[in-house]
Amino acid sequence: MTEKASQPATGARRPCLIVNPRSGGGKAGRFRIAERARAFGAQVLLIDHSLTQDLATVARRAVDDGADLLGVAGGDGTQALVAEVAAASGLPFMVIPAGTHNHFAMDLGLDREDPSAALEALRDGVELRVDLGYAGERAFVNNVSFGAYAALVQDPAYREDKIGTMVRILPEFLARHQGPELVVRTGLLTVDRPDAVLVSNNPYQIDDPAGLDRRAQLDSGLLGVLTARAETPAETAARLRSGQMHGLTRLATPDDVVIHADPPVVPVGLDGEAVTLRTPVRCRISPRTLRVWVPRHRPGVAPTGWRPPGWAVVQRAASLVERSHGRHTD
């Protein structure tokens, strides 16, 4: 993200920070997020996992109690729930990257190695206007996935090892997909029976079928769409190793993207969280609807062509899949 659309972030007198102490293996505790937030004058609400708590309800209650800024320390799924309330209330939103991968924070240029540095936005920050995606009534800050991608999220091992789980089951699943048949429609385009669908809040910068790459901007007003079909595990692995996918359709569109399926509900991966949504699922973009406060000074955007550290792991593992199927491509 660049500073071209930013303005000074000032005026929050009753900021409220919702903290998920379990995210990122307890990252909020290790970096003393709650204590440091209170030192900045913020009210802190700790999520009690021994109770059944709806985060959106917690956030709305904070707004009703007078909060004039909502922040969240947690992963992307937690952030999306609170971001939806902030956008609906017209309040500024603050991201503390206390999850495991923190893709949204990465695209905002935040320091993921020191989550507490994001609190500096309360003292010396700028406000960015960014887009927010919706799948049905649920907001997403990164992406929503269907078919094979959603199956990855449903796998219990995915939360602990996203990359390893993806490499382990994606080639086989794409080739032998037995899930509901999907139809994707957007504008004049129809894609019949894709095995995997990924709809993102702004397009990814590089063709990346795994959704591991980053977005060049978060305020384009466009949804990114990736759909993929595969024939054999070896073919899928070969394409994955080279950063491509067989049967790939890729586009960016301001139009709604509607995913149809015969079942009344389908499994979906929403910002890495496993959920179910009623069909058809209408995905839309709400341009510049989220007011995000970030520190004025932050690491920023990585060089063009950068791939996340896990991408090399994906490619090496894909090579092993190819060999196991007797078809290695040099």
Main β-sheet description: 11 strands, mixed
- Proportion of residues in β-strands: 25-35%
Compute the average pLDDT. 81
Shape: globular
The poorly predicted ranges are 302-318
Straight-line distance between termini: 36 Å
In total, the number of strands is 17
Strand-pairing-aware structural class: alpha+beta
Your description of this structure?
With 330 residues, the chain is an alpha+beta fold. Helix content is 26%, strand content 31%. It has helices spanning 27-30, 33-39, 55-64, 76-89, 103-107, 148-154, 162-175, 233-241, 310-324; strands at 7-9, 15-19, 43-46, 69-74, 92-97, 125-135, 138-140, 143-147, 182-186, 189-192, 196-201, 223-228, 249-253, 257-261, 265-270, 273-278, 281-295. Strands 1, 2, 3, 4, 5, 6, 7, 9, 10, 14 and 17 form an 11-stranded mixed β-sheet that branches. A 6-stranded antiparallel β-sheet has the order 13-12-11-8-15-16, with helices on one face. α7 packs parallel to α9. The radius of gyration is 20 Å and the shape is globular.
Characteristics:
330 residues; alpha+beta; 11-stranded mixed β-sheet; 17 strands; 26% helix
Layout of secondary structure:
Layout: E1 7-9, E2 15-19, H1 27-30, H2 33-39, E3 43-46, H3 55-64, E4 69-74, H4 76-89, E5 92-97, H5 103-107, E6 125-135, E7 138-140, E8 143-147, H6 148-154, H7 162-175, E9 182-186, E10 189-192, E11 196-201, E12 223-228, H8 233-241, E13 249-253, E14 257-261, E15 265-270, E16 273-278, E17 281-295, H9 310-324
Parallel strand pairs: 2-3, 2-4, 4-5, 5-17
Antiparallel strand pairs: 1-6, 6-7, 6-17, 8-11, 8-15, 9-10, 9-14, 11-12, 12-13, 14-17, 15-16
